[in-house]
Design a protein that fits this description.
Chain lengths: 326, 326
């Protein structure tokens, strides 16, 4: 018999599913502290996902991405839907790293119970995904948020991976940053379903928009199986221009994906990615928490040239399997 | 009984150990084509490594790194030692991507039987390590090269990882590129055992050298356990300045590591990294070559919300273990 104490895992999952903000925050915090300790709750949460539209928004620092997200949240709320943001960008004001004006706008959003904003710690000094990021998205999905936004900074492989965990990917650029070039470099041009050029009140914004459109024409062959013309939308935090157009594009993309079966394909692709990442994390964890020194022993044998690295890897996988089975 | 035909794995390993250039080239090519197909040869090669000094040289494109390496090779040869270069930088002239002057210098080196230069394909469109890179270093070590240089471009986690596979890491910067800042961003400042500022015939080189020295003073706490003062060496391809100083620093670093036991610690760290990378590669391979559709079945169950991602990862690791055991 499971007790129904308010802190029990089952009760917490129930409260999350009812959309109770304190329960959502608590389960995300517990997940950040130790995903393994709440493994059962997360498995239960996962069964109740699948309703939210997961939107990844990425862009280099200075691309106006965080302001854009704040305004997009208000746009979603104005239409009566619930919206959540998971920020994994350490430079994001959602993570506490920006100018006062942004912070004020954020806290306005925070006082609305149907808007949930959460920044996640990044893993290492080189940036990277928190292992709690995707479970947090699951939690918000199961809690009934209609749109869950993942905000990442557009540099590095891990960040590209997290955007690949989204159904729809929005890439934000700004004029005068050379962002377009940076976007190609990081491989994000190919993964964008929607391009946004922020600060389009600036005179040089048109050039950025044209350049992006030209690149998209060249890269047409790279687009997904679905017949979707990647839009380039100019937005302005000053005039509010383009925000409704962006939300419409996000909704259109979702409708098109549902219609064509692309949504199911992306869900499968996301599932593959999550399983693989989890397995890799288990390997890394095993390395970092080598309590009995058995991994160390393998490495020592390899260093002494008694064991080839490949044979060492096989032995490591074998050990992990034994531990999982037991 | 194993036949001694010239193409047999055992004969090839023997020829590699005798330093036969054609055998070295052939085994590296076979490794690039399929590391698994030559697994036994590579395991045998690994047993005969441990003599070479492995030097990682990294730097952003434009840092003058490839010219530096070409000159360093000549410096090593002038001292009567054998030197090999494994280039994993797609922008490197060793990989065929640079100006004519460089190419001419490279081909001079290529005609010397005691200098071996090989560029490796990079893995994906986002750059990254070839799985054959570290086996290639093993092959060159076992073939009797005294110094094996790994050249990587200084961006991205994978590139940092490959430099971590070296005993001594040299980071190249150039004046006027803002490279110093880029070096910090990519986390390479902390991993440098030796800094080189190329093009030091330029008037603005002194500023770059001073900036690097200042940053190193601030970062003193980050240095390794060994008492080693990271030198900042100015070099010039025009005047030849600094080249002898660089080779002396590389040799001094090796001597100091041997003396203090740091070399053994680094060998152990490299072994750990290789075992983990290999295990991760095995996981990825299993995903990409899912002949019986069993991984796909796991992903489908996760996508249908019948299985949590973590449980899927456990099942995946279990399957891999079974295949390895069989």
């Amino acid at each position: 018999m499971t007790t129904a104490a308010p802190t029990s895992s089952r009760a917490l999952v129930e409260d999350v599913r009812r959309g109770k903000v304190s329960a959502i925050a608590r389960l995300i915090s517990r997940t950040e502290a130790s995903p393994d300790a709440v493994g059962d709750a997360l498995a239960e949460i996962h069964r109740h996902t699948g309703r939210a539209h997961i939107v990844g928004i990425t862009g280099v620092p200075g691309s106006g991405k965080s302001t854009l997200i704040a305004q997009l949240c208000r746009q979603v709320r104005d239409g009566g839907r619930k919206v959540a943001v998971v920020a994994v960008d350490p430079t994001s004001p959602f993570s506490g790293g920006s100018i006062l004006g942004d912070r004020v706008r954020m806290s306005e959003l925070n006082s609305d119970p149907d808007t949930f904003i959460r920044s996640m710690a990044t893993r290492g000094n080189l940036g990277g995904l928190s292992r709690a990021t995707l479970p947090a998205v699951d939690i918000l999905d199961a809690a009934g948020f209609d749109i869950v936004i993942i905000e990442t900074v557009g540099v590095g492989q891990d960040e590209v991976d997290v955007v690949r965990a989204a159904h729809t990917t929005v890439v934000a650029s700004a004029p005068g940053l050379g962002d377009d070039i940076q976007a190609i470099k990081a491989g994000v041009l190919e993964i964008a379903d929607i391009h946004v050029v922020s600060k389009c009140d600036r005179p040089d914004a048109n050039r950025t928009i044209s350049e992006l459109k030209a690149m998209l024409t060249i890269g047409m062959q790279l687009s997904s199986r679905m017949d979707w013309r990647v839009p380039v939308i100019g937005t302005s935090a000053v005039t509010g221009e383009g925000l409704d157009q962006l939300l419409t594009a996000i909704d259109d993309h979702h409708a098109k994906m549902t219609e064509t079966g692309e949504l199911d394909r992306r869900r499968l692709r996301i599932a593959e990615m999550r399983v693989l990442k989890f397995a890799e994390d288990m390997l890394r964890d095993r390395f970092e928490n080598d309590r009995e020194g058995r991994v160390q022993e393998i490495a020592e044998q390899v260093a002494r040239l008694e064991l080839a690295p490949e044979a060492g890897a096989r032995r490591l996988l074998g050990q992990i399997q034994k531990e999982i089975a037991s």
